[in-house]
TrEMBL record:
It comes from the Bacteria. PROSITE patterns: CN_HYDROLASE (PS50263). Pfam families: CN_hydrolase. The keyword Aminoacyl-tRNA synthetase does not apply. This is Carbon-nitrogen hydrolase family protein. Residues 1-234 form the CN hydrolase domain. GO terms for molecular function: hydrolase activity. It comes from Flavivirga algicola. Signal peptide: none annotated. Keywords: Hydrolase.
């Protein structure tokens, strides 16, 4: 199974432009035979808490229909970040588009202090099964919650997928934490992060892949968009970094 992480530079609050950028990176993943591609936290809007009331949507948003078509025709799972509406308020969510299946939502349950001013706690999904692997998901702060990763492990996950916004000041701490998770629970782990500016943060990039021994086996740089792919059976990786003028 090949897992791809995308490193993007978000365009503040512009879902349509971010969709176009996502499609270019998904195309690279498809060309390299990835089975799943995951984007950073709130990837289609950027991390913009003050804007979520007008940006929040649902998993059935017609703007993301093209992702479903890509998923169906290429047998690839696509995980995109969006604020979604729930009965209780707005959640930080990842919408998972699976080949020829209904869309499902993984929502952030454990909010970072301060996020409760804009978001509500959502519902985590149990690990999903694809090609005989069980993939557990985490959104940013959840990687620091012991109960969260232990539940994933107890539910049989062998792959841990973290969709994050990590700042320049905080990224190394999270890299060490996810390395420890990989080693302790014997899970292949990946982390997808932004570059550039999002919200009040200078994003650090360094999207990373660890094997199930906790060893860092691939990492993108701190300033450019791109993808990294790992074959979890062979631990062979592919890295594609894009030029800084990629949007132009």
């Amino acid at each position: 199974m090949k897992i791809c992480i995308a490193q993007t530079k978000p365009i503040k609050g512009d879902i349509l432009k971010n969709i176009e950028n996502h499609k270019k990176l998904i195309n690279l993943a498809v060309q390299n035979h990835a089975d799943i591609i995951v984007f950073p936290e709130l990837s289609l809007t950027g991390y913009e808490p003050e804007l979520v009331k007008k940006l929040a949507t649902t998993k059935d948003d017609k703007r993301i229909d093209e992702f479903q078509r890509i998923s169906n025709s290429n047998s690839i799972i696509i995980g995109i970040g969006l604020p979604t509406k729930s009965e209780m308020g707005i959640c930080i969510s990842m919408i998972l588009l699976q080949p020829n299946k209904s869309r499902i939502i993984y929502s952030k349950k454990y909010l970072h202090p301060g996020e409760e001013n804009y978001f509500v706690s959502g519902k985590n999904l149990n690990p999903i099964t694809f090609k005989n692997n069980k993939l557990a998901f985490a959104i940013c702060y959840e990687t620091s919650i012991r109960e969260h990763v232990e539940k994933a492990f107890k539910n049989g996950a062998n792959v841990y997928v973290a969709s994050v916004l990590n700042s320049i000041n905080g990224v190394d701490k999270d890299i060490n934490r996810i390395s420890d998770i990989s080693k302790k629970y014997k899970m292949t782990s990946v982390m997808s992060n932004f570059v550039g500016k999002s919200g009040n943060y200078d994003c650090a990039g360094k999207s990373s892949i660890w094997n199930n021994k906790g060893q860092l086996i691939e990492q993108l740089d701190g300033s450019n968009e791109g993808i990294a792919i790992v074959d979890i059976d062979t631990e062979k990786t592919i890295k594609i970094q894009l030029e800084k003028n990629y949007h132009q």
